[in-house]
Specification:
With 110 residues, the protein is of the alpha+beta class. A three-stranded mixed sheet has the order 1-2-3. The protein contains three helices and three strands; from the N terminus they run H-E-E-H-E-H. It is globular.
Length: 110
């Protein structure tokens, strides 16, 4: 979702989802959760590898199985998030981290 969708959701009193960073910080009454891109970890690793002479060109995927948070759930969302939905989200993240669920590295646009 873009900032326009978030603004409209806020104006309409509807919940929305953020992307890349935890957008609930700026929109606590609108954002239910945010998908995290975590560019910070990849930047840190790239700089560290370059500084130590270990950098190589290529694509690296980070996810829950690397210990990197992939979702930020807004526990302060007005009205709350149902306990079963919160449990399902935490269980899914744990399953991704353990490898019980394998997420695709890319998707096909339809």
């Amino acid at each position: 979702s873009g900032l326009g969708v978030i603004a409209e959701g806020s104006a309409e009193g509807k919940g929305t989802f953020g992307v890349d960073v935890d957008q609930s910080i700026d929109h606590p009454d609108t954002i239910i959760s945010s998908a995290l891109a975590n560019q910070g970890q990849s930047c840190y690793d790239t700089i560290r590898d370059a500084a130590t002479g270990k950098w190589t060109y290529g694509t690296i995927y980070y996810g829950a199985d690397d210990g990197v948070p992939i979702v930020a759930i807004n526990l302060n969302y007005p009205g709350g998030i149902p306990a079963d939905a919160l449990k399902a989200a935490k269980d899914a993240q744990a399953a991704l981290a353990s490898g019980a669920i394998k997420a695709p590295e890319t998707t096909t646009t339809k």
